[in-house]
Design a protein that fits this description.
Pfam families: Retrotran_gag_2
Number of helices: 7
Largest sheet: none
Strand content: under 5%
Distance between the termini: 42 Å
Number of domains: 2
Number of strands: 0
Helix content: 55-70%
């Protein structure tokens, strides 16, 4: 997290006769707090290896747009990604430098990604 999301925000104290100014400042404080909360929530929802890449976005709106651009993509991008995943699945092989659990986890991750793209792998093929 950056220092913005962890810093303490001091609330303005209502002074008699200054309600309008206080109300305006409170609304502004609420907006700032919601913005920081939204940004922090988005950053925490990202996989750990992507958090640093997206930390430079200073507001929730541009952060969400960057996440969408990176992970959402358009139809052509999704099709390309799906084809790449299918190739990886077809060429899947265990590495001599990994234990069986690592191979299994790598295969499961690949199958999950294919499933997210609407590609169903029959159980007998997986086995």
């Amino acid at each position: 997290m950056d220092s913005q999301s962890t810093q303490t925000i001091k609330l303005p104290i209502l002074q008699p006769g200054e309600y309008d100014l206080w109300k305006m400042r409170m609304e502004q404080e609420g907006t700032i707090r919601e913005e920081l909360k939204a940004r922090s929530t988005l950053l925490m929802a990202l996989p750990n290896d992507h958090q640093l890449k997206f930390n430079s976005y200073k507001d929730a709106k541009t952060l969400m747009q960057a996440i969408e651009n990176r992970f959402g993509g358009n139809t052509a991008t999704k099709k390309t990604q799906k084809n790449l995943l299918k190739q990886q699945y077809e060429n899947f092989a265990a590495s001599s430098s990994e234990v069986i659990m690592q191979t299994y986890e790598r295969l499961q991750k690949l199958i999950s990604q294919l499933k997210m793209h609407g590609e169903v792998i029959p159980r007998e093929d997986i086995n």
